Amino acid sequence: MILIAPSLDDIARLAETALHEIPNELRQYTRDLVLKIEDLPDDEIVEEMELESPFDLLGLYQGVAMPFQSVGLVRAEPDRVFLYRRPILDYWCETGEALDDIVRHVLIHEIGHHFGFSDEDMDRIEGDGDSD
């Protein structure tokens, strides 16, 4: 039997589903959010974050943090969440957790930290499911 690892498109589909299913409490902040799925963080991110390995990072939020946003701020790019396929797949293999749960967890935490949610807030949000 030949098994094929989930592709970038597979991870993107899981992320889109997770984004639409997260509770409105968090989703309200994601209207213009762009999801980017890449195999690994680039060398610049690895260096900037002082990672030992590109496999140390499952996801990353890039954008202007909410406390620094203002009406007069002209933004060149939309906020983006990067999910890194190969580190996510490694984590999936190591833990045996469901892949969709991992993607959802990483997505919620990247969005939540960016907007100042505590780990306890995000754990509660993850447990809430869709609460429109």
From TrEMBL:
Keywords: Kinase, Transferase
Annotated Gene3D superfamilies: 3.30.2010.20
Membrane-traversing stretches: none
GO MF term (any one): kinase activity
Keyword Membrane: no
Pfam families registered for this protein in UniProt: Zincin_1 (PF06262)
The organism's place on the tree of life at top rank: Bacteria
Protein name in UniProt: Acetylglutamate kinase
Source organism of this protein record: Elstera cyanobacteriorum
